[in-house]
Design brief:
mainly alpha
């Protein structure tokens, strides 16, 4: 099975963020386990999942749609992290580090979307 998503820096960076988020949310209060913790984890895992699913599609239009879904999940994650910070579950320095990673991934997503739109080929063009 060809796995074009694994060649993308975006996918690898999003996977690294997901691992970090899982580790950070382990320290959240127990009462948040099935609420905010779960929402954060679902949002962060959705980013690389949508990138992978889009990269596995046949057309550029489908790929771009999945990249937009990944952006939506990233925005959801950003909101949940801000809430966690305001509730005191995330220290300011941890939040700052995560916020920088979220911004970096957002720029990578935007760049890949621009590249796909500018590329005249109708098939998915995945490049590392």
């Amino acid at each position: 099975m060809d796995k074009p998503h694994k060649k993308l820096d975006l996918w690898n960076t999003a996977m690294e963020l997901a691992v970090t988020i899982y580790q950070v949310t382990d320290s959240f209060p127990r009462e948040e386990r099935y609420s905010l913790t779960d929402q954060i984890r679902r949002a962060v895992s959705s980013v690389p999942s949508n990138v992978a699913e889009g990269a596995g599609r046949q057309t550029k239009k489908e790929f771009i749609n999945y990249l937009h879904m990944a952006q939506g999940s990233l925005s959801e994650l950003d909101t949940h992290l801000e809430l966690a910070r305001r509730l005191g579950y995330l220290a300011q320095d941890s939040w700052t580090m995560l916020d920088r990673q979220v911004e970096r991934i957002d720029k990578m997503l935007s760049g890949l979307i621009r590249h796909q739109k500018a590329n005249g080929v109708k098939r998915v063009a995945v490049r590392p």
